Amino acid sequence: MAKSIASEFTKGLWEEVPPFRLVLGLCPVLGVTTSMKNGIGMGLATTFVLLCSNILVSMLRNVIPAKVRIACFIIIIATFVIVVEQMMAAFAYTLFMDLGVFIPLIVVNCIVLGRAEAFASKNGILKSTADGLGVGLGFTWALGLLGAVRELIGTGSLKGDVFGLINWNFQNIFGSSFEPFGFAVQAPGAFVILGLLLCAMNLIPSK
Amino acid sequence: MDYIELIIACIFVNNILLAQFLGNCPFLGTSKKMETAVGMSMAVIFVLVLAGVITWLIFNYLLFPYKLVYLRTIAFILVIASLVQFVEMFLKKSIPGLYAGLGIFLPLITTNCAVFGVCVLNIDKEFTFMQALVASFGYAAGFGLALIIFAGLRERVLLARVPKPLQDTSIALITAGVISLSFYAFRGMV
After folding, report:
1. Residue of B16, B18, B21, B149 to mutate, interface with A, max A Cβ within 10 Å
2. What residues of B are in contact with residue A81 (Cβ under 8 Å)?
3. Chain A residues near residue B79 by CB distance under 8 angstroms
4. pLDDT level of residue B103 (50, 70, 90 thresholds)
5. pTM for this structure?
6. Tens of pLDDT along B37-47?
C-alpha cells in the first residue's frame, strides 16, 4: 500500500509530468514562463488547487451523481481557485499582478479537471493526495525549467524569489559579452523553446 | 476607442492564441485536420460572443452592484458551462455531422481558456458593453484565423520528413512559434 502511494506520487514527477508527457494545460505553461519565479509561483498555485480539489473530489466520490459530476468538479475547483486568488492578492501582490489573468484561469486548466475525473473520482483519499501533490509538483518543476531557460536566454540572468522565502540572484551567467536574445521572452519564443524542450524530453528514453 | 481599431487589435496584435496564449489545448488538439479546425473555430466564435456578452451583463448588473466581485470566477464558469451544454444540444439536433466531427472537443470548450479568458479580460480592461461585444468577436475571429492557418500548415508538415524526436507535438509547437512570429509583425500597428 505504502509503495503504491509512493508510486502515485513519483509518476507525476517524471513519467506523466503534465506539460511534457501529456501535453495538457499548455496555456499557463506558455503564458507565464517569462521568468523562473513566475513559472514556480504559477506552479505552486496550481499545485494547491490540484491538491485540495483532488482531496475533496475523492472524499465526495460516492456522493456525487455520475451524470452531473463534471459540473460538481468544476464548482469544487472554482472554489479553491477563488481561495488562491484572494490569498495571493493579500500576501503576494506583485506575483498576483504578474500572473494576471492566468490565476483565475487555473479553473479551466485541463490538468486539474483531468486529475479529478481520471483519478480522484475513482481512488481513495491517500492515493488522491499523493497523485495531486505529485502531478502538481511535476507541473511546477516543468514550469520552473521552461521559465529558467527562457529567462537565461532572454536576459542572461536569473533573479527572483518564491513568496519571499527563497531568494536567488545570478547576474550575467554567460559573462558580460553575452548579448541577451530577447526572442526567448517574447511570445513566439515560448512556442519554439517549449517545442525544443519536448524534443529534448523525447531524446531521453522513457521506461 | 475606435471599434475598428479594437477589432484589429483583438484579431492581430493581441491574438488570443499566439500573443496571449489562451486556448492552446484545442489549438494543438483540433488542428490536425482542416475540417475539425473550421468546426472548432465556428463553435468558439458562437460560444465566445454569447459568453462575452452574458458574463459582462452578469458582472456589471449582478456581481458588481451587490459587492459579489469575488464570486466572478465561479459565476463565469457556470455561465460558460451551461452555454456549451446548450450549443451541444443544438448541434446534436440540427447539424449531427458537425457534432460528430467535433467529438470530444465541443464539451472541452467549457475548459477552453480562450472563452473564459476573454470574459475575464473584458472585465479587467473595463470595457463598455459595445466594446465587450466587439472585443469578444474580435478575439474569437482571431482564434479562428490562427487555428485555420495552423491547421493548413500542419497538414503540410505531416507530409514532411521530420526527425524522430521532433515529431508530432514538438514540431507543431515550433510551427506555432513561426506563425506567432509572423503575427508579431503587427505589433506597433495599433
Report:
1. B21
2. 73
3. none
4. low
5. 0.86
6. 887 888 888 88
